[in-house]
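I would like you to help me understand the sequence and structure tokens below and explain how sequence relates to structure.
___
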Amino acid sequence: MELQPLLHDLLVAVHAPTQAWSDRDGQIGLVGGRGAQGVYHGDVRVVSGARLTVSGAVPEAVSSGADGPGRARAVLLPRTVDGPGADPTARLERLREVSPGAVTETLTLSCSTPAPVAARLEIVVTPDGTPMDRIKSGAAVTAPPAAEPVAGGVRWRADDEVTAELVAPGARVEVAADGTVRLAWDVEATTGAPATVGWTVTVTDAGGVVTAPRRAEPEWAPLHVEAADRRLPALLDQALGDLATLRMSARFAPDDVFLAAGAPWFFTLFGRDSIWAARMLLPLGTELAAGTLRTLAALQGTTTAPATAEQPGKILHEVRRAELSMPGEGTVLPPVYYGTVDATPLWVCLLHDAWRWGMPDAEVEALLPALERALTWMSDHGDSDGDGFLEYADETGHGLANQGWKDSGDSVQWRTGELATGPIALAEVQGYAHEAALAGAALLDAFGRPGAARWRAWAAGLADRFRASFWTADERGRYPGIALDADKRVVDTVTSNIGHLLGTGILTAEEEALVAARLTGPDMDSGYGLRTMSTDSAGYWPLRYHGGAVWPHDTAIVVQGLARAGHAREAAALAEGLLAAAQGFDDRLPELYGGDPRGTVPQVVPYPAACRPQAWSAAAAVSVLGAALGLRPDVPGGRLDVRPPAPAPLGAVAVEGLRLAGRPLAVRVGADGRAEVATDAPVEVRTA
């Protein structure tokens, strides 16, 4: 039986497009030829094993964890070379450092003994060339590729375009009959004089669609945060470190930078994920948003191709080096795949928001033709049946059955548990489209281009249609359903999707209050964040991917919407839940986690196959901070409104390192919600 590998208890270090996954003690090894452990470059695993012994025995781990961006460290006790007594007198540190295209492991043996400690350090490395989709599906690896000797090490070809080379200075290097590579060092440590050895795998990739950025430094400045809630600075520090390691460029747009969706499975450009992450990070500057917008615009759809779901004006879903096949699921995606209904309106929203944060006019204006094509897609191809709503349907039979952010096959279901039939019109997508139409109109007006009146009228009509078609009711009152099915019936499950409507303008203030009350009830608020599905639904399960688990980015979007709609207490409760959850993950929020009620489990329950770091989960920390600060920039209009919600969701907060129109921005918010702002950006600052 093939099962997706679990990740929750693995040690990870990444620096796009390279990553390394291991046991907590640093050991890399598969069980029965299956598992996610290994060294990857892009969508190819190049090492599937790296097993360490000290004088013939496996050392015992006493501590391990992340050690800064792209680094992981394990502290081990080599008991076979230790002295007598209870005190450990010898220790081995295993430091793994990942940089783009390389993984280096440094072994340091130290001691506190009267006599020197001698040991043989051996590592058995297993070369690999397994593609990512086979690993994710749980398929067993085949025999390792043949390694050939080179100066100081060995080299092997992982696939037709990826070559790996291992060097181990000072080691004896042997290729065994089973294809593994054995590294051995005889070392001696004395008190105060550790012995250090190491090995490095470097990868060359002739055909990868994504690469490391040309600029090593992130687009944002260091962030300095002081907060009454001490959990917030720790979360932000980890998040920004992780985000720095997820920066990528595409070969077709090498001068621009975007964020990979997440490690290990989604270590590439994703339209929706990369857009949301860039949007959440706008308080740190507009450079990342601009790079993301331009990269996606470079592959904006130009033709109608059902095999790839491409349509004129459409923004892609994902891009990979080769076809992605998921054995056992029936899913086969082409290398460039457009099967997403929400990336296109979200692209428009990002461009508009970046403009308001001070993205240079020339850069915005260069993207206006792509904006016009994206808007046209919403009314034409996005609305495939002419009913005035954006909907989706997989025309191939082997693409994604659901094409919103909840893209698993069972994510859109009735309260009774039955799956909805497509074409599907998702609630939140109509909100995105409404916001995008108004945003597009504002940009067209600002730059003297025609069409603004058309899109304002289209948005008004969409809001009227949404109000007439998406609302339903139960014993607790009215609420929007998750979607309309093929027969235009309201799919009545209560889900987090409706929280994304907040702030899009498609709801009235009264409707926003109804949504806020519905989302913050005990069936939706787990205490660790917002569940994706109400516990009142038959399909709810706390570890169902889109049917009860908690996604940090999802909660952060709703926190932002609640704060903007004036529901500060509700926003505060959800934000505090994210901070509490982060403590259970060493301040690194994963892709998702269990929706068990807080207080019924010792701590937050991991979703065992969740990616980490995940771009929009890490960016959620900045989004929640932004909601607490209440920043509403309008650089083109020459003003910055600062309206923190009161009571302050995160207590008193002071932040330096934000950017507005490329200039420094510092904000201090007291527990009473009063704000102080310092900036030399060309804006009038108005505080509530």
